[in-house]
Amino acid sequence: MRQPAARSALCPFEITVHSGPHAAREALTLLLDGLTCLALEAEEVCVVRLVVAEMLNNIVEHAYSDADLPGPIHIACHHAPDGLHLAVSDEGLPMPDLQAPLGLPQEIDRPVCDLPEGGFGWFLIRDLAKDLSYRRLAQKNRIDLRLPVGLPPR
After folding, report:
1. Distance (Å, rounded) from C-alpha 104 to C-alpha 27?
2. Is the predicted pLDDT of residue 85 greater than 50, yes or no?
3. What is the pTM of this model?
4. Which of 34, 63, 68, 126 is the most exposed place for a label (fewest CB within 10 A)?
5. HSE on the CB side for 1, CA within 13 Å?
6. φ and ψ at 146, to 5 degrees?
7. pLDDT exceeds cutoff 70 at 4
8. Handedness of CA 22, 105, 150, 82 (dihedral sign)
9. Residue 142 forms beta bridges with which residues?
């Protein structure tokens, strides 16, 4: 039986990138590099990559929708016994109705050309992340969430 890789303590760290076409890739590379000491399983890395990429792409596309007015995207990260805690913030436009989208499942039993353009990302984020909260303070958006990865072996 394969033994799980040893997980070292993760020192809390922060990343700041500027919105733009390469922001998600840059931030994901920095984030995953910072998580190497956790020795995450491949599936756990996929969860982190998927959730964070969806969040970052939403920020670039919606919060900083005017490409001529880019802004900072900040990610604070720490690890606890219940998983990876992330705080993602930006100075872009607020979310509609000052709430994170519900992320309801989309009906996909229709022709591909009739599928909605959006809505799948928030469904994935809400399905994979725990303890998700959004708030708008001092002209900044902030999403806090927990990803149940890097948990101690049972």
Report:
1. 27
2. yes
3. 0.86
4. 68
5. 2
6. -125, 135
7. no
8. positive
9. 89, 135
- Name the DSSP class of 43: H
Edge to edge, what strands does the sheet with 72-80 contain?
13-18, 72-80, 83-90, 140-147, 130-137
Q: What is the pLDDT of residue 100?
A: 87
CA distances from residue 111 to 12, 117, 121, 122, 124 in whole angstroms, order as listed: 46, 13, 20, 22, 21
Tokens 């394969």 label which residue?
A: 2
Helix, strand, coil percent values for the chain (each to nearest 5): 35, 25, 40
Question: How many residues are recorded in the chain?
Answer: 154
The CA–CA distances, whole Å, from 4 to 1, 40, 83 equal: 9, 9, 16
Q: How many CB atoms lie within 10 A of CB 123?
A: 16
Q: For the chain, report the end-to-end CA distance as a whole number of angstroms.
A: 15
Pair of tokens at residue 135: 């708030």
d(CA 137, CA 133): 13
Cβ atoms of 78 and 85 within 8 Å: the answer is yes
Residue with tokens 């670039």, as numbered in its chain? 60
